[in-house]
Design a protein that fits this description.
By secondary structure, the protein is α+β, with helices and mostly antiparallel strands. The chain contains one helix and three strands.
Length: 58
Amino acid sequence: MEKIKYFNHIRFTLDNQSGYYLSARKINGKQIRMHRYIWEFFNGIIPDGFCIHHIDHD
């Protein structure tokens, strides 16, 4: 698995503990997970209390 991925000129690095890709720099004051950033980029902000449901349940 690649340790570094880029999306929209932002570098995301693999967090070995969680298995998620995290932004290398803070966005709005915090590191965010790549899958959430991509969802919000294409679909808009995820409302509080909601989560992304992956089709493969992963």
